[in-house]
Amino acid sequence: MPTSATSNHPSRPEDLIGRLNSAHTPYEAKLKALRDLKNQIIGNRTKKLAFLKLGAVPSVVSILSSAAAAQGGGGDNREFYESVLIQSAAAIGSFACGLDAGVKAVLDAGAFPLLLSLISHLNEKVADAGARSLKLIYQSKRAPKYEFLQEKNMEFLLSLLNSKNENVTGLGANIITHSCQTTAEQQALSEAGVIKRLVSLLGGSINQKDASLESLAAMVKENSEVSAKFMGPENGRALNVVIELMKDKHPRTRLLACMCLISIRNTSTSYLQDSGIKNTLVSVLLELLDDPGPVGDEAPFVMSSLITEKEDMQKIAFNANLIEKLCEHLNVGSYQAKRLQGIFLVLGDLCSKLECCRDRVLDLQVLHFVTEALAHDSAEVRTAACNFLKNVSRSVKNLSAGQFMNEAVAVPLVQLLCDSSSSVQIAALGAISNVVVDFMAHKSVLMQCGGVKQLVQLSKSMESAIRVNAVWALRNLTFLVNYRCKEEILLELTSATLISLINDPEPSVQAQALALVRNLVDGTLSSINYVFGEDGAVLHAIARQLRSTSKVEVQIQGMYALSNVASGNELHKEAVMNQLLPQAGNDAEKTLVKFLQSTDSQLRTATLWALINLTFPGSPGTCRRITELRNAGIITQLKNMVNDHCLDVKLRARMALGQLMIFGDSSS
């Protein structure tokens, strides 16, 4: 039997680790060291990090492993080794609690399978300690994904859910919440009878209720079949139970009940659509926003899942004074990053569709808080603030009133284009794209603070999402700007970069690049000349892309770009004609007819505009171009389009045909 440890051992981190690691330390002393370690790190992030640096986790896991092996061999010291197992598991759980670095260290040290083996221990206290520790690990995104589709794993999960130990059943539910991500996994869990077991836990302890609600939300999310099964008669009054839990005295239970109901509601337009449940959901979540703890931090995200892209819910939330409530919280200030992120997320959702929400937000001077949010330490907060700006700036009347593009907003947005987070960069690009779309004064502010240079730089990014958003912003920046601004933009952009973007491997980037050219050549003859520099390299690039691409969005923008060029003088028209119908251009002829026959009305319209501009009466070469178009079978095709089901196409087809018929129709 190990000798007794003295009671006055030093408890400095280095000494504790030394006692845990030393082969000469008696096991009873190691047990005391484990208790001391656990007590020091519980709820103390600083201490956890200090012990992590000293390598405490591998030491504890090693002791757990040794104790499990020794205890498995039987003998008189079984109770002692069980105490070591309990204390080791508790210490490991403490390291994992609320600290991703701790979870990583625990997993790297090989603790997971050891803890999992404790679940089936005959001593309920040991099993409970293992379950508690694993539950804490499964609160982290770093926790290992559980493979439900393997039969033995599903059997083990069901054994957890059927356990009489509350922490073990909670662990089973936590595993589902963390790992149930695909439709196949949701279906497999449903077919295995997991829903029924989770529903039964709704009548258990507060921890079981919460774990069950969260798991059910994960299982039904975006899965109408599983939702239907939950709503089915085999689960009795399960839905009513969840609805009643929105009135529970515990805030977290109310929050999770809302989350579960929203997951069900979002799977089908036939579920939970009555005004009573809609108003109750908004009302409960509105109240939970005031919770000072984690529930209040999470409530905005649940509210967002309720109202995002749903105009009816946004109206209810607006009428319930949600914007005022969120502004009250902003005025209080000094919130954790997560809550601040959630507030701007919800404000952005509210402003995505309703002008009344945008007006209210501006009346309450929310923009005063945006500047600080754009410079927040948290990338998530910066992203949410940018997305809010993107949505609130959809208001044309407020854009024209100059509400957004001043230096207080423009400078931070441009600075975010250099952010270390690509998510922030993309969000900032989205905000800039909206803000600069239509008002010259706003464009000037952005250009003066170096925005164009940064946008061009990002258009060369290796990340396609950044490239497409950067080119989109440049496209909007060039919309209806004067010649001088275009010159400034092209000075940074260069023809070589523009051609590279037109030939980008991503069709979405190609389309935005062609739309950018479309805007650049819109307007004066001088503007059209942009595509004729360097022997017409940009014009050739457009034509090549049109002949090779199969993507309709690329074809539409390419044809509009050529249409704008064709609106110029005779030289410009001839250049476009040579691209559309080159010598020996059978493929080109087929391409032109194919575009006119497209099922996409926008592509048909864009192609017709090009024909209208090419055959504009009074231009010296119009007669010859009409002859070439007639020989290519274009007139015959136009006659087939004069009664097109799309009004815009029908009008443009008749206009084009009228111009071509001025010179007669030898095919008739």
From TrEMBL:
ARM repeats lie at residues 450-478. It is found in: Cytoplasm; Nucleus. InterPro entries: ARM-like, ARM-type_fold, Armadillo, ARMC8/Vid28. Pfam families: Arm. One of its GO terms (biological process) is proteasome-mediated ubiquitin-dependent protein catabolic process. Keywords: Cytoplasm, Nucleus, Repeat. GO terms for cellular component: cytoplasm; GID complex; nucleus. Its main location: cytoplasm. PANTHER family: ARMADILLO REPEAT-CONTAINING PROTEIN 8 (PTHR15651). This is Armadillo repeat-containing protein 8.
